[in-house]
Fold each of these.
Amino acid sequence: MTAFRPVSFVLNGKPAAVTAAPIRRLAHALREELGLTGTKIGCDAGDCGACTVLLDGRQVCSCLVPLAQVEGRTVVTVEGLAADGRLNPLQEAFHLYGAAQCGICTPGMLMAATDLLQRNPKPGEQEVLDALGGVLCRCTGYRKIVDAVLHVGDCAGAQVVDPEAGQAVGARAAKTDGVEKVTGREIYGADRAPADALWLRVVRSPHWSARFTIGDPAALQATHPGLVKVLTAADVPGNNGFGIYPDVKDQPVLADGIVRYRGEAVAALVGDYDTVHGIRDDEVPIAWQAGDPVQGFDAPLAAGAPQLHADKPGNILAHGFVARGDAEAALAGADIVVEGDFETGFVEHAYIEPEAGWARRVGDRLEITVTTQTPYMDRDEVAQLIGIAPEQVRIIPTACGGGFGGKLDLSVQPLIAVGAWILGRPVRCVYNRIETMAATTKRHPARMRARYGCTGDGRLSGFDFTGDFNTGAYVSWGLTVKDRVPVHATGPYFVPAMSARSRAIFAHEPPSGAFRGFGVPQAAIAHEALMDMMAERLSMDSLAFRHANAIRKGQPTNTGQLLQSAGLDQCLDRLRPHWTEWRAAAEAFNRASGNGYRRGVGVGCMWYGCGNTSLSNPSTMRMGIAPDGKVTLYSGAQDIGQGTNTTMVQAAADGLGIRMSGISLVWGDTDLTPDSGKSSASRQAYVSGNAAKRAGENLRAEILRRANCSEMARIEIGGSVSVRDGDAVREIDLSLLPELSNGDVLMAEGYFDPPTTPLDRNGQGSPYGTYGFAAQIADVEVDVELGTVKVVRMAAAHDVGRALNPIQVEGQIHGGIAQGLGFALMEEYVPGRTENLHDYLIPTIGDLPPIVTYIVEDPEPTGPWGAKGIGEPSLCATAPAIFGGIHHATGVRVTRAPCTPDRLRAALLALHRSDPDRRPVSD
Ligand code: FES
Ligand code: FES
């Protein structure tokens, strides 16, 4: 065994020494040998910057620094920033400005900013962009990070408040878990596990389509004593299939003799870290017989194509359909009809935190500590995989370092569960960047055709849509996408007659799943392009055309639902001044420009049904008071960065009538919290917000009843409960009350299930309790020689019903715009080719323009204080707005996302050839 000399250095101001291989990565040494898990690992390849630390005062990616290189030098990590337990001014600014959402990038951002501020205490914006350019954030859209760095030491502009009792909802309250995120104390999936945990590494298929057999692993174990077990399909004790629908469990934990995509799990090596990561896949005795994969749309649908699933002929998973009126007749009678074909590719979630967690068996129960968006669904899935009751599984969520829908499907959970269950030892697993990208779900590629018709005076009259959505190898969320798209396919407009058909298609590609919008962002590209085309044919301003046709309260949606909240017209009103000014400026620029650049301004609109489509999707919240007066909200609503740990406390506080700072939060743990449903489909503010409000109100009612006080009474909770009703003060002596099973003495629950109905065979019904609306405009600059597009500025107006916390709403809008910008201009996951963060591009801090944000509050009567959702709506309008800007600038109508420079350059050339009067582009 090699003996290593200790490497000595100064760490966070104190001497430190690590005895490990000289080539050990500093990031790993910090996390594993020294226990400083504030330094994160998102890629281990120098691409994401999550591991940024200071080495002799300058920022470095610690995943690229060999341990030997720090001998005698100084290293500062995020743990070294706070002095005497107090946040330093930069951490304070991040906390108050809401610069941390999921928080996984926050340590890296803080260290990069510290490097800058040490050299330049008053940097300008461009200097901030340059200094932080090496750290990726997938949540925030970077704008609040820039604001925080620019305002260090001067946080007055943050306008953060500590709201009085009864005034928490609507307040710009800082995150309840924000301090953990800016100090590096927050614990994510890869940060902690028992010291004796075995490691699990997945062996994955190198083929898109194949049959295989696994031989006896005895020889492998004989040559690798640290290999404890090779798990195969035969080791799964229960049903070797999972999926998000109760009646569809088609994806195996470990493939059983057949694989349907490259990256599918076929075996798992369990043992010590070095052994399982040192064994090459080709050492595992697997005999492969590769088949012919069918990929994309045409090959799977071709006559005689290989079938991925025997019970799904033609590789068609399912059809979706919504129709109102006679769309064909309406289009035949329309004064103007426009049509187009549109296409989008796979998009990767690219959360900075890879999938990670650990599991242990405790008697006849399993405990799984894991990053997830959906603790209760994980619990039920694992139970059926192991063959035990759901109550025998406990999910303990860690902080979630970004999800965006990608952590709704299972990843490490079933593997570590099987390992821990059959071996009786803790088992942990952390996906590396390549496998998180190769093996987990994506946004559905779409191929769509749509026609829109209107009258000569600019009223929409008919619409027809067909769309295929590639769901990859397994069902995942394919059934949801095929249902959600037709409901939303027209866009947020009143259309008297419409028809929309969708199909979910299987292919030998990664499963497509949930990704911020469930098909709506793809469809928005189609309907918004057609809206622009109709406005152009009418010689009508395209924003005014949308305003005239925006669906209003009282008008039926495509499914015949009458909305009680519909604020698109108000959103457009807020944007109109920018629209007018920016369009005029762009046109003036173009008249003056002779340097190969063109400016343009586009508008995009969207709507989004909040919650699961036509399904019961309830949430339950619980509040309790302990004998010492401690008030606790038990919330199962998983915070994935969007801020539910804060907004649920705000809602509960106002329901009860005390300050939010008087409420402790227990979140996520399925043994300790009720089921609040999934953090998906923009449902938590609306659904769980209602449940939290009602939990508070019900606890308040219980206190008032015991105190025999009126509704107007004021509640104060310290060591006891005081109720002040006019001049009278009544006390409830908590010490006299019997303890409940969890130790509290007072308890109440709140429950809400959105009012939805099933859709009939024509897709008519009320699929959602409410809809969010938005309009965004994008001012873009196109380099017509290179085909590159820079988004110069954006304005976004979102109808959220009521902003429970405006900081969180703004953060969601910024983050959604960032992902929408990536979707529009750069992000395309090419299976087998872009499985890392240097080939797969996501927007950096330099790609995000200034964003003007307007929060419109058209209250939803069934929402808590009128609130609706914002998570998914924030993204859906961005690509259409950018594409509208490109058309305004160049005349090119973008029909395929992403609009990469090569595609735009080709379109510009084609346009020039067909119309030489257009601005010349050199061949
Ligand atoms: S983990 Fe080091 S750059 Fe990504
Ligand atoms: S807050 Fe930056 S990645 Fe989540």
Note: The longest strand covers residues 460-472.
Amino acid sequence: MTGDEREPSEADSDHGFPPGFFDRADLTSDERFYRPDRFVTHIDDGAIAAVGALYDELDVTGDVLDLMSSWISHFPNTPERLVVLGMNESELAANPQASSWVVHDLNERPVLPFADATFDHVVCCVSVDYLTRPIEVFREVARVLRPGGAFVLTFSNRCFPTKAIRAWLANDEPGRVEIVRQYFLRAGGFEAPVAQRRTPMASGGDPLYAVWARRGPA
Ligand SMILES: C[S@@+](CC[C@H](N)C(=O)[O-])C[C@H]1O[C@@H](n2cnc3c(N)ncnc32)[C@H](O)[C@@H]1O
């Protein structure tokens, strides 16, 4: 990680991260940025397959929430109930695996519109770098997860640079893994996070990293 490594403090609104950590180049609303439809894939086929293989390995089934979602959720096997949450209505409505969808800006309102313990698992693919209030969001994920459920974040080395937080752009790939690990540790409510590179170093394709942790006991 770049910057100082202060201990987290509840009195500090940035939860102990250095000043400017969550700054972004584009200060216009996310609603405006994500208004145009983008029916694209943000990682290559190898990385998409790695996301799906991880979901299978961790048995991400049952009632599942895909946070910061779009028209594609990457599950090899569709969960029994998949709720997708993101910014673009047309993309979410077109997601063939979704049972239902909700447009919700997590930077404007980090409170999740779901009751406690609604989901068996929560996933977030190639999007954690856009969160400006991640600790609040991770705490909300812990609240809506059932005990033992996993919160699985995956990411690569591509992004919309004007919408990614400054610390993400300033770090290399191991540094980004550490940022996500710190989100879990500082949010609390989860067991120890696991971090792995999920694509081979020599593949030549998009790298795929994952950080996940299970909700602690209620
Ligand atoms: C790079 S795309 C990834 C989409 C999808 N998860 C995937 O794997 O293809 C980033 C996604 O994050 C969502 N997103 C960005 N900012 C958000 C915010 N403030 N609140 C909720 N979702 C957001 C957008 O709707 C967009 O679909």
Note: Residues 1-12 have pLDDT under 50 and may be disordered.
